[in-house]
Specification:
With 118 residues, the chain is mainly α. It has helices spanning 5-8, 12-28, 41-55, 64-71, 78-94, 99-110, 113-116. The mean pLDDT is 93.
Length: 118
Amino acid sequence: MEKSLFDKYGGFSVVSKIVLDLYDRLLDDDDVGPFFDEIDMARIVDHQTKFVSSLMGGPASYTDDQIRKMHAHLEIHQRHFDKLQSLLRATLADHGVAPEDQVAILAAFEARRNLVTE
């Protein structure tokens, strides 16, 4: 049985470090940073850790309907999604995720684009 990317890279402890680094980058970005003003960051990091884990084949996951509802009140445009995707790619690379594994994770992320964008 082939190991999931979640298991290959060390599970929640590693994904959590990637997500914390990703949010440092997101908060510093003028385009996407404002989405996180007045947000409970501990809660969103927890959700995002579970979400990224699921993108990597980990045990936690969200349904498409849950993802759509969590983002329905936000005006997330294609450029915002593109920026987040770019930051995710850079963060994965900086944490030693192999290029072919980045492609797989980013493809899973891309598959959710229409659930969060207008």
